[in-house]
Amino acid sequence: MSKRIVSGVRPTGRLHLGNYVGTLKNWVKLQNEEEYECFFFVADWHSLTTGFEHAEQVGCNLFNVFYDLMAIGLDPERSALFLQSAISGHSELFLIYSMITPMGWLERNPTVKEMVRDYDIKEHINYGLIGYPVLQAADITLYKGEYVPIGKDQLPHLELTREIVRRFNHLYGSIFPEPKELLTDFPVLKALDGRRMSKTLGNAIPVVASEQEIWSAVKSAVTDPSRVYRNDPGHPDICNVYHYFEVFFKNEARSMDLQESCIKGAIGCMDCKKKLSALLNGMLLPFYERKQLLMQEPEKVKEMIETCNTKADRIARKTIQEIKEKFGFKVECHESKEN
Ligand code: TRP
Ligand code: SF4
What we know:
Oligomer: single chain
Radius of gyration: 23 Å
CATH topology of the largest domain: Rossmann fold
CATH class of the largest domain: Alpha Beta
CATH architecture of the largest domain: 3-Layer(aba) Sandwich
Largest sheet: 3 strands, parallel
Number of strands: 5
Shape: elongated
Bound molecules: tryptophan, iron/sulfur cluster
Strand content: 5-15%
Strand order of the largest sheet: 1-2-3
Number of helices: 15
Structural class: mainly alpha
Number of domains: 2
């Protein structure tokens, strides 16, 4: 029997290179391995936890996220590629889990604490944000997911999923497997300004991007600040552009003697950036081209997603039904005892 994989991505703007190397590339790889059956979804409900004031922005972005996901190689005919909010089971199971999840488990979650810091929302943390990992537990277990390909930052959430699963199984009988993470060994990719890559910080490199967009991201990279003139000796070890060469284009850097040339002041930062930009463009171009093709057939894309929604919904309904049966939640004609 194939092993079931479940994972989601929040539709915060366009997918960026950090998302790709950290998680999405792994999704594509897993999708193409025979032993797995994959359920990948766009977590639009999750986006409301921090973006509730701009719900319509989340909405108008959704289709684009599907284009991006398909452009990088996810295939709705191999993986179920669907929309979280289209399957009512996610929110139902979220509600059920919220009944059995002690507040203490949620309050200590470091990833939620980080979100509170990043989004600067300390003064008004909503109930929904505290419940973020509970919804995530529902996402995974609704399909009885066994493996969850995620970035390291998501580990606290997955640990909570396992705690909820153990508690549920203990209380009502074992129906859920305890999901395990599938991590990649790729280190977290920093942005070209040296900070964490994020759409909010405005430093993200879109993974499906035109040549001009890639250049405009690379152009503003922070290099060695001590280099003022073109011939000044550089320090590649502290340069973000050099870091990208190391991560993605080691061989190219070696064959152009980049490290030496930089230290000797023989190459200018502008030329160096142009080279990086061209290499990135070469790497990402197939995605860009595929998206152009997909965009010519929006109806077909929509249909494929809807088919996946239906497939996911069928499984989700079964799970919810199974739970309701465990609970005995159904109306039956009993004779009233009071008479
Ligand atoms: N929290 C995840 C992120 O920000 C997205 C997500 C939502 C998810 N539900 C999930 C990931 C279920 C794995 C499984 O990246
Ligand atoms: Fe960085 Fe390249 Fe400039 Fe050296 S030449 S500091 S590696 S951008």
